[in-house]
Amino acid sequence: MQHSPPRPEDFSYHLPEELIAQHPLQNRSASKLLTVDRSTGQTGHKVFRDIIELLPDNTHIVWNNAKVIPARLLGKKEGTGGKAEVFLYRFSGDDPLQWEALLKVKKGGRPGLGIELPEGVVARIVNPLGDGRANIRFENIAPEAFNDWLHRQGSVPLPPYIGRRPETEDRTRYQTVYAGPTGAVAAPTAGLHFTPEVIDALHARNIGITEITLHVSLGTFLPLREENLASGTLHSELVDISPQAADTINAARNAGKKILAVGTTSVRSLESAADPDGTIKPLRGETNIFLYPPYRFKAVDMMLTNFHLPESSLMMLVCAFGGTDHIMAAYREAVEARYRFFSYGDAMLIT
Fold first, then answer.
1. H or E segment at 319?
2. What span, in angstroms and rounded, lies between the C-alpha atoms of 185 and 68?
3. What is the DSSP letter of 216?
4. pTM of the entire structure?
5. What domains are defined for the chain?
6. β partners of residue 109
7. DSSP conformation letters of 257-310
8. Tell me: the pLDDT tens digits for 317-348?
């Protein structure tokens, strides 16, 4: 049974701006790794590649293989030529040319307004959704040509706390090395630290890995609102846990394995699909699950995560898993030790 959400300000901490990572490290696995024992609060300071030895033999890893789309498009308003920006955040139905998008258009976006984009493509507003969002449909391009066009003309949707324009390196570094199904507008950043060498070493230890998919959507960039707190739910995101993935995870649990969820997206997916006894059901659809203290986790035993924004839903999730006092103390320790924060920052392993 969910309790009333605590106040977001209970999950605030002081973060010097210079600790917000603006670029990825040259070597993915060279990130720092703060370990936290959630039963005692004891911490340790490692490097990410040390995870190869840190994980117990009976670990089974579940990670999110979603791939980020180049969701940000720059254009101009039809007629006036005013600057406009289209930020795609989710498919809108079966039509590959129809999307929900966040628009930056002077004086707002009315139904029928067109935004002229490169190569003669036009994004037409079908109907506004409020808060700068709208259903749009692309014109002057064939459905089968859309994906190639988007990858030519779109840019990586870096989070707003990265105060620079996307660069060439972001095309590969803002993706996990195991990214597969396309559709996310933000990377599952806890997975950014894995390299093929680390993965091979985990396989050599017979540590199993199961892939699931959750396409991070617009809500990642939005602050918590009163309606989130009142309803105990978040924005909806598309999740896909295949029957085969569910069977593999359940078999691992039944064999005494401990489930390590890579990132909050994997945690949300697994807890959305879990029966009260922790059994994972196949799930293909949407989840709006909001995990905050106190919450009894049914399907996750360990978590790998990056450091999250103060007062965010993700901060609340991590505190629910690791214990608010332990996690807030660990964050203060990370600040003091000059860890790098957020998407391109360092990692935390909670056991």
1. helix 313-322
2. 5
3. -
4. 0.91
5. 8-68+169-350 (3.40.1780.10), 72-153 (2.40.10.240)
6. none
7. PEEEEESHHHHHHHHHHB-TTSPBPPEEEEEEE---SS---SS-SEEEEE---T
8. 999 999 999 999 999 999 999 999 999 999 99
